[in-house]
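Dear colleagues,

For the upcoming journal club I promised to circulate an example of a predicted protein-ligand complex. I picked one with zinc ion because it came up in last month's discussion. The inputs are reproduced below in full, followed by the predicted structure.
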Amino acid sequence: MLLLMRVVRLLALCAVALGCPTIVSRSQWEARVPRNRDPLGTPVPYVIIHHTAGNHCTSQVSCSREVRGIQSYHMDKNGWSDIGYNFLIGEDDRVYEGRGWSTMGAHAKNWNNKSLGISFLGSFSKTAPDNTTLTVAKSLIQCAVSRGFLSESYTLKGHRDVTSTQCPGDALYEAISQWPEFEA
Ligand SMILES: *[C@@H]1O[C@H](CO)[C@@H](O)[C@H](O)[C@H]1NC(C)=O
Ligand SMILES: *[C@@H]1O[C@H](CO)[C@@H](O)[C@H](O)[C@H]1NC(C)=O
Ligand SMILES: [Zn+2]
């Protein structure tokens, strides 16, 4: 019985490890403390994809610097309580924790309370992130489903599908529109 329980636990750990990419935590990228956190009712039914329309980055050092800059902009210029996105993805193929799984974001007006906002670091109007980077996003989304933060029958949208914006850039928008869960 004890052995069986150990095996079950090991399998569960493996499933989590397979389904979830490593996430650079807030303390790792040296986040500021949020002013406030509103809980997100999970599982949410939507994922909304963004780009930051800022600098590209290809290392943990440069992406962390970029994420800190975005957090400061959102807190100091926009007056938000924290960085707006739930997660960010760099072209270093790492995921950066924003507000995380269960705090409501500030990334898509009227949609924040029913979605996870994932933003690619950089500007993707002319070229999309490469397939490896796109796969990191897919794996993060699968992880959200497996951990119960995103509904199994979720819908994926680009920011421009819910408001008037160029975000997430023509090339990235074209790429995500091929994904099976996409709906304009
Ligand atoms: C989200 O907020 C809107 C506007 O306040 C509200 O009508 C809606 O019921 C909320 N949805 C959820 C899932 O909380
Ligand atoms: C990237 O993925 C797209 C869509 O699945 C595919 O058409 C393209 O050939 C891939 N590119 C590379 C370099 O693997
Ligand atoms: Zn956006």
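Two points we might discuss: The first strand starts at residue 23 and ends at 24. Confidence is low (pLDDT under 50) at residues 10-17.

See you all on Thursday,
B. R.
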